[in-house]
Structure formats: structure tokens, C-alpha cells
Specification:
The chain has 206 residues and is an alpha/beta fold. It has 2 domains: 132 residues, Rossmann fold, CATH 3.40.50.1390; 41 residues. Strand 1, helix 1 and strand 2 form a beta-alpha-beta unit. Helix 6 packs across helix 8. 26% of the residues are buried.
């Protein structure tokens, strides 16, 4: 094993992708390891196109470890798309370690070579975790759609609400001449959100 690369993801800018950083750091310390780099982004796990994950794969060297909190932080992808991502991870020479899947922890033991049975079981557990993450996503999406449909029938649906507090912070930072990148890194929000606020400011300016 060379380096441990920790990947942290949250689905929206309203969620804190850094939330699990302390847990991952503590986990590595418990195994007498240190994390070489953190890759953090607010991006949906239902799409394979994720800039920070791509950067991690580009930075990776053979025998590095990709450390995640749970499988749903890495993927909520359909099975076929997950297989493509898993193939990219393997091609990069990375080994996946999931904090809540003990069977994957053997990769952190220096000098330990997993036998074929252990590797097969680990691969199966990763696929199972990925399938469960996708199923959970689809179930929640279905329930959300049902809830929206019911609210519309009852005349209670108001649509997606804007995070006014976040938008105000972005507005203040833009007025202070901070760059999009600085704002993204400070607030852990998407570039699209910063752009929307910037557009709104321009439209309000006489």
C-alpha cells in the first residue's frame, strides 16, 4: 500500500461533505495510517461525472487506497454504470476501503496479501453495497414523488425552496470580489449555485 486517498461526498450544497472527515481520519489513525489527500465535493452520487473523484483517479498510483465512509458516498449508480466506475478504479490500481465494511479493511494491513476467496468476497460485498445504495436512492425518489403528488392534490406543494442563508453569504462574498473558486471552497457549494446568485445580482442592478 502506498497512499490513502479519502473521498468525501454530499449530494447538495446544503449538506456538509466534510462531515465525515474526522471519522475517516480517526479510522486511519486506528490502523496506524495517515491520509495523504482528501477529495471533497458536493455532487450527486447518481452520476459518474464527478470532478473531484476524477481528480482522485488521475492522482492515484498503483496500490493506493480509496477510503470512503459508506458505499453510498462513492456510488448510487445503476449497476452497469457502477461496473464501469469500478473498472476505472481498478485500472487506476486503487483498492477500496469502506469504513462500515470490515471485510475491506485488510487492505490497510501492510504486507498482507489477500487470497482469491477473500478478494472475491470483498468484491461481492462492494457490489452488494452499491446495489443497496442504488435501491435506497430509488426508494426515496419514489416516496418523494408520491409525497409531491399528494401535496399537489391537496394544494400544499410549494416547490423546491431556495436556501436564503447560503445565497446571502454568496452574495456578500461576490460583492467582496471573492472568486467563484474561493466561494465554492469556503461554503462547499456548487459553481452553478454561485453563478445563479451572481446572475440574480446583475439582474437586480439598475
Amino acid at each position: 500500500m502506498n497512499f490513502i486517498r479519502a473521498y468525501l461526498r454530499a449530494s447538495t450544497e446544503q449538506q456538509d461533505a466534510e462531515r465525515a472527515k474526522d471519522e475517516l481520519t480517526t479510522f486511519a489513525n486506528q490502523h496506524n495510517k495517515s491520509i495523504a489527500a482528501y477529495y471533497t465535493e458536493n455532487h450527486t452520487g447518481t452520476k459518474a461525472d464527478r470532478p473531484e473523484l476524477d481528480r482522485l483517479l488521475n492522482d492515484a498510483q498503483p496500490n493506493d487506497v480509496l477510503l470512503i465512509e459508506k458505499m453510498d458516498r462513492l456510488t448510487r449508480l445503476p449497476y452497469e454504470v457502477w461496473q464501469d466506475l469500478k473498472s476505472r478504479i481498478k485500472q487506476a490500481g486503487l483498492t477500496i476501503v469502506v469504513v462500515d465494511q470490515p471485510m475491506t479493511h485488510a487492505a490497510l494491513t501492510s504486507g498482507t496479501e489477500s487470497n482469491s476467496i477473500t478478494k472475491a468476497l470483498t468484491d461481492f460485498m462492494l457490489d452488494l453495497g452499491a446495489a443497496m445504495a442504488r435501491d435506497d436512492y430509488e426508494t426515496r425518489q419514489k416516496r418523494q414523488a408520491q409525497g409531491i403528488a399528494k401535496a399537489k392534490l391537496e394544494g400544499k406543494y410549494k416547490g423546491k425552496q431556495v436556501n436564503q442563508e447560503l445565497h446571502k453569504k454568496i452574495e456578500n462574498m461576490l460583492k467582496a470580489k471573492m472568486s467563484y473558486t474561493q466561494i465554492q471552497q469556503t461554503l462547499s457549494c456548487s459553481r452553478a449555485t454561485v453563478a445563479r446568485v451572481s446572475k440574480a445580482i446583475k439582474e437586480q442592478t439598475p
